[in-house]
Amino acid sequence: MARGYDATNPEKSFDSDTCLLTGILARVPARTVSSISKCYLNSGYQVLRKIGGGSYSQVKEVSQGQHRFAVKVIDTTRVSDDFKGRFLPRELEILSRIDHRHIVNVLRIFKASEKVFIVMDLAEDGDLLCYIKKKKFLSDSRSRIYFLQIIDALNYLHGLDVAHRDLKCENILMKSSRHVKLADFGFSRPCSKDGRRVLSRTFCGSTFYASPEVLQGKAYNPKLYDVWSLGCILFIMLCGVMPFDDTDPKLQVKQQLCRNIAYPKTPVVSPEAKDLLRWMLEPDVLMRTSVPRILSHPWLSSKSGGDNNFLNSL
Fold first, then answer.
1. What's the total number of domains in the chain?
2. Contact indicator for 275, 299 with CB cutoff of 8 Å
3. What is the pLDDT at residue 313?
4. Is 132 a domain residue?
5. Is there a domain that residue 150 lies in?
6. CB 105 within 8 A of CB 22
7. Residue 6: predicted pLDDT
8. 10 Å Cβ neighbour count for 167?
9. What is one cellular component GO term in this UniProt entry (predicted)?
10. 166 is known as an active-site residue
């Protein structure tokens, strides 16, 4: 029987007999189970409902005693060899390293049959996109509170020399109306190898949040790609719409290169926030800002004393 989560000692748990932290999935022995339900029961979890999913993975809400969790289930029989050989081991290795208050906490990783299970904290209030849709747009102060938490998480990742490469509102989970956490590290990767910076060449993430160099198929700096995507997230929070035409990729790139950011008439975005967005949504990668510079921007530093105190209290 697989070792379950101990609520009295809530630390990351990686089963020794199915350890995935070597980053080489092929070496992980498969556990023989008759069904996915039996695997959950053997692990001490009961399935409550399906939260979401895609072509090769599902996210389910499960319980163990009085505690509820989210479990990402990856079916390795449905993924490409490239995903199985590169992306999945990389994701699992990175998940084993990270520990931050504004990143979804992974409690356990194990493998059963041909499925990989990632057990993590449950985000009770859904994702940021759903929240914005309900509100239409967010106030300047509310956007700043969320942005401070997201940039705090991203600064931590970049400090570990890791880029997320799939920043979008759907991957920002709501723990409450004032707490958000970054999730989904399926496209994350280290940014250097043997001490040398490595450019990315794989198209990652969503077209709507993609920078012009990524949409044009150029080799790109993954950290600067994260900055662009985060700029899109900030714009959506403040305006409730995308910053560029998201129906035509060619027109989207043209607008990006021309710095034609489509601000709506309402709500009114403050000059300070527009200036920060201009820094982040800069098409020239040599001029685009970095996470450390974002942290010193006036929109965060001059008006957010209360927000910073709130952030430090979390």
1. 2
2. yes
3. 47
4. yes
5. yes
6. no
7. 36
8. 27
9. cytoplasm
10. yes
Question: 186 and 117 in one domain?
Answer: no
Task: Supply the DSSP string of 30-98, one letter for each residue.
Answer: PPP-S-HHHHHHHTT-EEEEEEEE-SSEEEEEEEETTEEEEEEEEETTSS-HHIIIIIHHHHHHHHHH-
Q: Euclidean distance between the first and final Cα of the chain, in Å?
A: 37
Residue 125 neighbours by CB distance under 10 Å:
15
DSSP for 152-206 reads HHHHHHHHTTEE-----GGGEEEEETTEEEE---TT-EESEETTEE--B-S--S-
Phi–psi pair at 238, nearest 5 degrees: -75, -30
- CATH number for the domain spanning 66: value is 3.30.200.20
Name the residue type at position 232: C
Instruction: Please report, for the domain that includes residue 172, its CATH number.
Output: 1.10.510.10
Give the pLDDT of residue 31: 36
Q: Are residues 79 and 160 in the same domain?
A: no
Whether residue 72 is annotated as binding a ligand: the answer is yes
Check whether residue 104 and residue 241 sit in a common domain: no
Q: Are residues 111 and 169 in the same domain?
A: no
Annotated catalytic residue, options 127, 166, 226, 307: 166
Q: What is the pLDDT of residue 63?
A: 87
Based on the domain organization, do 245 and 189 belong to the same domain?
Answer: yes
How far from the centroid of its chain's Cα atoms is residue 56's Cα? 18
Q: Is 99 helix (H, G, I), strand (E, B) or coil?
A: coil
Q: List the one residue out of 144, 130, 147 whose CA is nearest residue 270.
A: 144
CB neighbours of 132 closer than 8 A, spacing ≥ 6? Answer: 138, 169, 236, 237, 240
Whether residues 103 and 140 share a domain: the answer is no
183: containing domain: 128-313
Residue 6 belongs to some domain of the structure = no
Residues 65 and 180 both lie in one domain: no
Instruction: Return the percentage of the chain with pLDDT > 70, whole number.
Output: 82
Low-confidence stretches of the chain (pLDDT < 70) are 1-43, 302-314
Whether 160 and 250 have beta carbons less than 8 Å apart is answered as: no
Give the per-residue pLDDT at 169: 98
Name residues whose C-beta falls within 8 Å of residue 218's C-beta, 6 or more positions apart in sequence: none
